[in-house]
Amino acid sequence: MGFTREDAARKPCICAISYKSLSRLIHSVIPRYAPLAEIRIVDKLFDDALDTARDLVAAREVDVFLSAGANGAFLRNNVTVPVVLIKVSGFDILRALLKAREISKRIAIVTYQATSAELEEVKQLLKLNVEQRSYTTIEDARDCFRDLAADGYKVIVGSSLITDLAEEAGLTGIFLYSRNSVCQALNDAIEIARIARIEEARRERINTILQHLNEGVVAVDMEERIESVNPAMEKLLGVASEWAIGRRLSEIAPALGLDPTLRTGVTELEQLQTVGKRTVVVNRLPIREHGVQTGAVLTSQDSTTIERVDRNIRSRNRPRHFTAKYQFAQIVGNSPAIGQAKALAAQYARTDSTVLITGESGTGKELFAQSIHNASRRRNHPFVAINCAAFPESLLESELFGYEEGAFSGSRRGGKAGLFECAHTGTIFLDEIGDMPVALQTRLLRVLQEREVLRLGGNDPTPVDVRVIASTHCDLQKHIEDGKFREDLFYRLNILHLNLPPLRERRADIRVIADYLLRDALRRLASSARHEHLLDAVLPFLETHLWPGNIREMENVIERIAVFVSDAAGAEVDPSWLRAIVPELFARELPFGVPSAGSRALKSVNRANELSHIRRVIDECRGDHAEAAKRLGISRTTLWRKLGSGSGGLSETAERR
Fold this sequence. Notes:
Layout: H1 5-9, E1 13-18, H2 21-33, E2 38-43, H3 46-58, E3 64-67, H4 69-76, E4 83-85, H5 90-101, E5 106-112, H6 118-126, E6 129-135, H7 138-150, E7 155-158, H8 160-168, E8 172-175, H9 179-212, E9 216-221, E10 226-229, H10 231-237, H11 241-244, H12 249-252, H13 259-264, E11 268-275, E12 278-289, E13 292-301, H14 303-316, H15 336-348, E14 355-358, H16 365-374, E15 383-387, H17 393-401, E16 402-403, E17 416-417, H18 419-422, E18 427-431, H19 438-450, E19 452-453, E20 462-463, E21 467-472, H20 476-481, H21 487-493, E22 496-499, H22 510-524, H23 531-544, H24 550-567, H25 575-581, H26 610-620, H27 625-632, H28 636-645, H29 652-656
Parallel strand pairs: 1-2, 1-3, 3-4, 5-6, 5-7, 7-8, 14-21, 14-22, 15-18, 18-21
Antiparallel strand pairs: 9-10, 9-13, 11-12, 12-13, 16-17, 19-20
């Protein structure tokens, strides 16, 4: 049947809708056709069969239906998929009649809708007493059998439905269809399915090409009437293809008319045309068949194509690791402080405005920056991060803004795109912006204002579409007073402000964060230590620590504990063992005047916030001035002097002390 191995790899789907005897006959030949087609049998009649057939068509699970008689005629009138009918051959009729004659000399043959003229010749040739009847509904068939029985007929020849109804009426049924008829119908069905598959694949291929072409395409005949138009051209013309086909192109878009091309047969390439408010580049070409012009085609490209090419050129110089991996769901904590920060950050993600994130070291500033990016419209574009404190001034400048070839000794051949260019259409995260040299702050300010970057040694600025998120642990106001930070840059950065709370202000989160970090550390170390037992043992010490290094410090402490527990999984956790591993958790026992690793040293606090910080520490120490001075890293005399100079005096706890 002309099937290739490739055809067999995608076997056609044939659905046989039949009834009882015919279903059994079809089932008997399925093994023979297994290499060629997927064949399923639906043993149903009429409306039930039609419901199943429509479901299969809707699910695109059938190429061709196979049926016979009344079932087949009913399907043909109600489904869009081809229906191949199993036809009765002259040999089938002869075989059935001869078999019937062995039972009775009075034979009736009952067929759907019409009788057979050829049967009259067979009757005369074989000298058979054969009565022909037809039916349109099951009730018609039953009435027919009652009449035949009354007339003395004993044997009925017909389809599976007819033989079943005949036997129901007390008559003998002879099945009309043969194995050869079924095989012939299956051969036809498979060939029809194969050809349909080929045509469908060709149409799908052409349609896919047209659907996904960036260029708009419209083809016209010699009268300039539109014959075909793809979606890109529909968008340009502002009309649907169903409406446009048959109309003259110059009537819809005069600037795109093809009359000159149809008259002269001349090809015109890369012509600028204005359609509405859009400027497009068009090509006009004649269509020729066997040397004779039969029409013309016009293709167009707009600015979106140019922008896409521009992005592709940029992406060739963009390292693939510029992605953000964290999202808001990965920020651990349920305290009101962190919840408020997450809610505000999520609100900021809905805009493109510049964000300034402030907070102590280790509070998760980059985690929030990545989460904002991943929740924004730029999520599928690059996220570029750089620590402004990690590079010397000259290197930081070339990293941020790039350089042209020969800009300085040792520069890369061909130059290098800076991180602002790499972040085009995405987000750049400027970590520790407070440590950026003032000279570079000036260049950064210009980039933020003009939205374009000039490479070192370059003459032509490159436009960039970048969302800026900056962070710092510094007091930028104090830096401005000290001349270390430009005030105009601060206002340019501080459009949206997000302050992250230190861990000591979200103590309700300590347990959940420690739980998360401990599970992760034990998993990475493949430790068999009991997680819950270990957490319960160390939690009291974690909750009383001040965490000046915040989450980053806790990560280090938890990992250190996990490493030692991994080496001695069965050991009990006691304070003496813990003191040796993480002495910072017991730093309160350090001598007076030596600020512990867990202290709340006054020198780390903004000058404007000193008094409120001192009061808070005194309250935490329940009015114990000695302990408060130790935590603050100052003497008791200095503590009293600062309290005396404040306008609010002592806290209530301190006064009671």
